[in-house]
C-alpha cells in the first residue's frame, strides 16, 4: 500500500474504534434492553472498559496493544452480529446495519499487515525498523480462533452468571476463565512478538517460536536477501506460514539455537542460508535496500 495510506492508517484506526459507542453501541443497548440491571451493569463495565483500554492502545502503539486490538476487534464484530440477530423491527435493523459495517471495517483494519508494523514499531529505537512475520499456517485455522473463544468467552460467561445470581457456577466458570485467559492471551501475544528488524549493523531475526534467542546477521556476512525459490534447501523457519517466503543467504556459517519441544535449551544448527515469511516481503526487501543489505 502507498506511503500516504500508512500515514493515514493510525488516525483511521483510532477514528473507527472511537466511533464504536455511537455505531455499535446503540445496537448493543437495544439487545440488552429487558435484561436485568446487574447483567446490564456487567455488560456496560466490560464494554466501556475494553473500549477505553484499546483506545489508549491505538494512541500509544505497542506489541501489547496489538494483541489487545486483535482480541477486541473480533469481539466487537461478534457482538454486532449477535445484536443484529436479536434485533426487532426496521429501526433496529437500520441501526444494526451501520453497526455491522463499522465492526467489519474495524476487523479489516485491525488485521492489516500495516497495522501490525505500526504497533510493533511503537517501542522501537529510531534507527531500527521492525517488520512482522506471518502467523504459522497450522495455527491460523482452528487453534487461534479456538484459543480466542476460550480466552474471551469463558471469563465473560462467568461474570454474567454471577450477575444472574448463579453464584457457584459463576465463581467456578470465572476462576477457570481467568486462568485460561491468562495462559491463552500470553500465547497469543507471543505471535505479536515475531519480526525481522533492521538495525545499523545489519538485520535481526526475532522469532520466539523458532529461535531461543534473537540472531543478528551483520551486513558484512549477508550475501543476499531474496524471494525464496521453490526448490530451496535452506533451513526452513517459516513455520509453514502462507505467503511469499524470503531466503537469507550468508557468506559465512552462523550458529542458531532452534526451539525444540521437550528441550528448553534448544537445539543448535549451523547454517549458511535460511527461510522466513514476513507479512510484507516487499517492504522487507525495500528496507534491506535502504540499509545496504544485498538483495536479489
Unreliable segments of 5+ consecutive residues: none
Strand percentage, roughly? 15-25%
Question: What is the global morphology?
Answer: elongated
The overall number of domains is: 2
Q: Indicate the radius of gyration in whole angstroms.
A: 22 Å
Helical proportion?
55-70%
What's the count of strands? 8
Order of helices and strands: HHHHHHEHHHEEEEEEEH
Placed side by side, the strands forming the largest sheet appear as 1-2-3-4
Question: Which helices and strands, and how do they pair?
Answer:
Blueprint (H helix, E strand, L loop, with lengths): L2 H16 L1 H13 L4 H23 L3 H23 L3 H22 L2 H8 L8 E4 L4 H4 L2 H21 L3 H25 L3 E5 L2 E5 L8 E4 L3 E6 L7 E2 L9 E15 L2 E14 L4 H10 L6
Parallel strand pairs: 6-8
Antiparallel strand pairs: 1-2, 2-3, 3-4, 5-7, 7-8
Helix pairs in contact: 1-3, 1-5, 2-4, 2-5, 3-4, 4-5, 4-6, 8-9
Word description of this protein:
The chain is α+β, with helices and mostly antiparallel strands and 296 residues long. It folds into two domains: 1-123; 195-290, no CATH class. Helices cover 56% and strands 19% of the residues. The chain has ten helices and eight strands. The protein has helices at residues 3-18, 20-32, 37-59, 63-85, 89-110, 113-120, 137-140, 143-163, 167-191, 281-290; strands at residues 129-132, 195-199, 202-206, 215-218, 222-227, 235-236, 246-260, 263-276. The strands form two sheets. A four-stranded antiparallel β-sheet has the order 1-2-3-4. It has a four-stranded mixed β-sheet with strand order 5-7-8-6, covered by helices on one side. Strand 2 and strand 3 (202-206) form a beta hairpin.
